[in-house]
Amino acid sequence: MTQHSQSSEDSQRDDLERLIYHPYWSRAWIRQEFIMASKIDIQCGPLHVPFVVLNRCKRDYLEAPHQDSQATLGQEAKPFMFDLMEARRGWHREGSQFHIVP
User: In whole angstroms, what is the distance from residue 91 CA to residue 55 CA?
Assistant: First the structure.
């Protein structure tokens, strides 16, 4: 692997980490919308990422060896966004719905 491609991969990993660890994903209304939405696409500036691509990024990120990249960002916990993805999977798998109880 060339130095340039390694640098590019590092940059992409850094960008992904800034996205998945961003406190934005910990906001209550964002969590609710993310989990319950029928379709998710992430729009960040000019960048558009379909949810299926985000799922692949998650898998690749979790399987890739890291050089303490989380520690560099001061993060020790699982990324906020990954928690939301797991909650979303559970919500839609179980066909959860709100029920009004009289």
Answer: 16
If one compares 4 and 29, the residue with the highest pLDDT of the two is: 29
pLDDT at 100: 47
Pairing of strands 41-44, 47-50: antiparallel
By CB neighbour count within 10 A (0-12 exposed, 13-18 middle, 19+ buried), where does 52 fall?
exposed
SS3 62: helix
Q: Is residue 31 part of a domain?
A: yes
Q: How far is CA 61 from the centre of its chain?
A: 10
- Report the pLDDT averaged over residues 64-82: 60
Between 55 and 94, whose confidence is greater? 55
**Would residue 74 count as lying in a domain?**
yes
* CB atoms inside a 10 Å sphere around CB 7: 10
What total number of domains does the chain contain?
1
pTM over 0.85: no
| 33 domain-assigned | yes
Q: Specify if 1 maps to a domain.
A: no
